[in-house]
Amino acid sequence: MLYPTASSTAAAVAFLSPAPSSSSYSRRQRSRLRSTSAALSPPASSEEPLLVRAARGEDGLPRPPAWMMRQAGRYMAEYQALAKRHPSFRERSETTDLIVEITLQPWRAFAPDGVILFSDILTPLPAIGVPFDISDSKGPVIQSPVRSEEQVRELVPIDLDKLHFVGQSLRILRNEIDGKAALLGFVGAPWTIATYVVEGGMTNTYTNIKSMCYTAPNVLRGLLSHLAQAISDYIIYQVNSGAQCIQIFDSWGGQLPPHVWEQWSKPYIKQIVSRIKKECPHVPLVLYINGNGGLLERMKDTGVDVIGLDWTVDMADGRRRLGNGIGVQGNVDPAFLFSPLPVLTDEIHRVVKSAGPKGHILNLGHGVLQKTPEEAVAHFFDVTRSLRYDTLFQGSVAEELQPVA
């Protein structure tokens, strides 16, 4: 069975048009987003954090900036102590004081170049009418998976007031960091969020949502379109609250064959990118997919500024495939943080040399693993701060390692 394309989204979701009151709310919300966008106009380039400048592909930077996915969290003893006092993940990720404290823990300990908000890609779901719980044994649980036309109709435009803790936290963090690092926000891509909404939580097979591509394509398109609109609003809200760079996680996009991702994920990411580039043109966008080796060229076509490579992609090969016109992020295997420190040092040097002296954000190829030694995380950032492009890339070596257009 051929998978339907998403090119006919508008026609396919005509039956899903919101009620007038929802439309009015949506218009008011978009107006509010636009009216606040001028409050955080970009500073002069030289005043911006290193990470933002690298994400834009600026020339002449002294070294690559670095941060880590899952930078804040369970590998840190300080976080573990806090989690014992506040055992609910929802409480930790939806309470302003706790969000700020957890976000700042790795920044105080390791001084990364990027500080990413402690949150979850599912955090905005209740704000569109999809409640969820988190089970210690099962992870996220959605009691009423969305699989019908009627359920999609019941979704509401995102109510940003219900996400006030995100905005408050970002404003506080922007002030606390005070320009010494870039403040990153993040969202899940529509397909990835939809996997949870349709499956009812975590899954290893994705059979319900994959089958909807041909058993209920109009319903799935309606859901993805609604999510794309909500996620766009959520990104703008984060930017207006202080986020300087946004990462889009299509975490489960790699579970799709490339031609299916092209049809069912890429169009909705492009829709988001197009709107953000129009309304927040100064904010770089990073796209990360776990298992993205077969998707790099397709990811580039979304219009984002930076492609995050997972650890299974050779950085030099990724650079050759993507060319000079787009940034790359990554991609040290998180397992190297368990190796002897000299081995980790060598791997950092290898990745940086393979990425080239422009448009590279050093990161892991996936999130920090549980039980990762904090000493290794500190070493990762210490090594990065010691790097200098002018000594790493000299003469014929630099020419050899330059990305191919």
Short structural description:
The protein has 405 residues and is of the alpha/beta class. It has helices spanning 9-12, 20-36, 50-55, 77-85, 89-94, 96-110, 149-153, 164-177, 190-199, 207-215, 217-241, 258-264, 266-279, 296-300, 315-322, 341-355, 374-386, 389-392, 395-401; strands spanning 114-116, 133-135, 139-141, 182-188, 245-249, 285-288, 306-308, 327-332, 360-364. Strands 1-4-5-6-7-8-9 form a seven-stranded parallel sheet. The chain has a two-stranded antiparallel sheet with strand order 2-3.
Task: Describe what this molecule looks like in 3D.
The chain contains 19 helices and nine strands. Mean pLDDT is 90; it is low at 1-25, 35-39 and 396-401. The radius of gyration is 21 Å and the shape is globular. The strands form two sheets. A seven-stranded parallel β-sheet has the order 1-4-5-6-7-8-9. The chain has helices at 9-12, 20-36, 50-55, 77-85, 89-94, 96-110, 149-153, 164-177, 190-199, 207-215, 217-241, 258-264, 266-279, 296-300, 315-322, 341-355, 374-386, 389-392, 395-401; strands at 114-116, 133-135, 139-141, 182-188, 245-249, 285-288, 306-308, 327-332, 360-364. Helix 15 (315-322) runs parallel beside helix 16. It starts with 8 loop residues before the first helix and ends with a helix. The longest helix is centred in the middle third of the chain and has 25 residues, at 217-241. The chain has 405 residues and is α/β, with parallel strands linked by helices.
